[in-house]
Amino acid sequence: MAAEKQFETKVKKFLKGKGCWSLKYWGGASYTKSGIPDLLVSCSGKFIGIELKAPKGRPSPLQIVNLRDIDRSGGYAILLYPDDYALFQDLIQYIQTGERKKAGQCYELLKSKWEHFENKLKRGE
After folding, report:
1. Which of 24, 82, 13, 28 is nearest to 54 (CA)?
2. Is 84 left (phi over 0), alpha (psi -120 to 50) or beta?
3. pLDDT tens digits, residue range 46-67?
């Protein structure tokens, strides 16, 4: 869990430095909804839900459902691993500069991470 917390701190610092608003969400406690992404972000008018994972972390089925729902509603739904941090930084840069095509390409690569787990769930793995 320490690795995930360190990664979270790194991501929050990066977002703050870029002028993005973010909120750390603690799900599963009393009066909170489970499966909500770890970070809820507004950046250049775009909504981004970020579920942070340590290198070998796996999302829960409910986290996948929420990421899919964010994506279907037009937001950016990201399952973020440390190995994808540079790609995530590129995505934020492209969102902020209005480079929609490049942002879309970065997002599709990041989106494939949770889609991989969604497909495994559909197959019953």
Report:
1. 82
2. alpha
3. 999 999 999 999 999 999 999 9
